[in-house]
Task: inverse folding
């Protein structure tokens, strides 16, 4: 059975209600006009093939490796459904994005975790992952950028994880929904998909976070043949086939995605360094200092659970941040600079500072 996702339930309560949004972890919504392409015909069956080809071209892989999905959320579900039987285990990073755990549990899997530690700049330490693996492990699961800290994953580490998994006949699942933010691909091709690093790597992604197209649910699984086959079967079992309009719009969006990459780059500007400089002025807080991306993690030593304070700041000051308690870090908050223009961001940060200065 699928348990409730506490984080999503909390966000639904507060999303859109605070004038200063430092919580949304994706680019502001893009319109079809931003894409600079005409709306496609919505009744052409050839769109299904075009979408698969467009996903492959964007990710610089072959169409045989692609299963289109409804956003990364659905891609995670399909990837899990393709590899997990009840009682199987996965090893997921902690702190982490709750749905990666809930979806696996919903399919009857057992979730073990490995730590990404602040003292190690939240990088993935392969030896610690290896220590968490058992004969029942079917997948090692990581995010890039790491949600909630924004830490990045390098190719060498992913290859090491793939070798650890390979020795057990398991997979590495890389949720790369944020990965294009490392260097937004204005060429329209994302060349760094983890799928290309080893045969047992499965990558999931979408046009949600980096490009502002989340409402269109344009996602995918990239995997080896047996995963493509089983994820495709899971898709058929759960919805028959994806909507034709999803395929038609997705193919056009992907063909023009370079324009949205440029838009995102312009909207992000130098806001990451604005937040990093501000974080330095907070004597008790520690900043995860992500090297790219649109969010990072602030922690306060000895603060206890920040959730009540964060809720009072929404009510009292109109500032919305993500309580990191939902990611397994009660004394932290995730702060995003994706949506506010720079002057509003600076105003929000100055209103937020007292929350992090108070004892
Ligand atoms: C790590 C991670 N994966 C997946 C998703 C969901 O992506 P999508 O909106 O494309 O379903 C999110 C959303 O916050 C996320 O943080």
Result:
């Amino acid at each position: 059975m699928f348990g409730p996702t506490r984080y999503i339930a909390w966000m639904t309560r507060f999303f859109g209600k605070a004038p200063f949004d430092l919580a949304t972890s994706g680019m502001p919504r893009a319109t079809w006009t931003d894409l600079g392409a005409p709306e496609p015909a919505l009744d052409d069956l050839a769109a299904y093939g075009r979408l698969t080809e467009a996903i492959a071209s964007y990710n610089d892989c072959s169409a045989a490796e692609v299963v289109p999905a409804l956003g990364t959320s659905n891609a995670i579900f399909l990837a899990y459904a393709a590899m997990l039987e009840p009682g199987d285990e996965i090893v997921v990073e902690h702190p982490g994005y709750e749905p990666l755990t809930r979806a696996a549990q919903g399919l009857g899997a057992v979730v073990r975790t490995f730590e990404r530690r602040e003292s190690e700049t939240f990088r993935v330490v392969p030896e610690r992952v290896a220590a968490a693996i058992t004969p029942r492990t079917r997948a090692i699961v990581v995010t890039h950028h790491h949600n909630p800290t924004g830490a990045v994953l390098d190719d060498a580490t992913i290859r090491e994880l793939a070798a650890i998994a390979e020795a057990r006949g398991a997979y590495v699942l890389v949720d790369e929904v944020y990965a294009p933010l490392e260097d937004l691909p204005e060429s329209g091709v994302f060349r760094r998909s983890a799928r290309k690093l080893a045969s047992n790597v499965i990558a999931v992604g979408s046009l949600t976070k980096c490009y502002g197209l989340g409402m269109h649910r344009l996602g995918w699984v990239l995997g080896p043949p047996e995963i493509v086959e089983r994820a495709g079967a899971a898709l058929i079992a759960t919805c028959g086939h994806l909507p034709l309009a999803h395929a038609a719009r997705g193919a056009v969006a992907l063909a023009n995605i370079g324009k949205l990459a440029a838009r995102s780059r312009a909207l992000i500007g130098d806001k990451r360094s604005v937040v990093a400089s501000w974080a330095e002025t907070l004597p008790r807080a520690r900043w995860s200092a992500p090297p790219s991306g649109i969010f990072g993690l602030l922690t306060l030593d000895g603060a206890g659970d920040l959730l009540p304070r964060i809720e009072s700041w929404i009510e009292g000051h109109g500032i919305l941040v993500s309580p990191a308690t939902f990611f397994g870090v009660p004394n932290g908050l995730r702060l995003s600079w994706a949506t506010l223009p720079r002057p509003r961001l600076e105003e929000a940060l100055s209103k937020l500072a007292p929350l992090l200065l108070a004892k």
Summary: The chain has two domains: 6-28+267-357, 37-261. Residues 25, 71-73, 97, 143, 147, 175, 177, 206, 208, 214, 219 surround pyridoxal-5'-phosphate (CB under 6 Å). The chain has 13 helices and 13 strands.
